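thought: fold this chain, then report.
action: predict
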Amino acid sequence: MKNLITNRQELIDYSKSENNSYTNYILSFLKQENYSKHNKTHKHPIIPLHMNGPNKKWNLVTLSIDEHSYAHKLLFENSKNYYDLSASYMLLGQRSEGFEKMCKANHLKMKQEGKGF
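observation:
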């Protein structure tokens, strides 16, 4: 389904149908107009690039660093992708924890691909 999404409204409809902690969190930001609550913000792909999300403007949401970290934590809770957990830690400056989760993600990916085992 997510590969068929081509615009923001389809993305909102898809997110509503998913109805999980991550999509509900992101939907709360999509409802806001002119989001500028924080000075330092990041653009976060709603459908992550590692999940074949498009690198398009309609797939981006503006989040503070803490909100961005939390979005990755929720993604991990829903998809169990350790790269998201790593990103969550790294965004908060917790580099050793983030590096540890990145190593775990790489290990799982190599095992899945049958490399090195």
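thought: worth noting. The CA atoms of residues 73 and 85 lie 6 Å apart.
final: tokens above.
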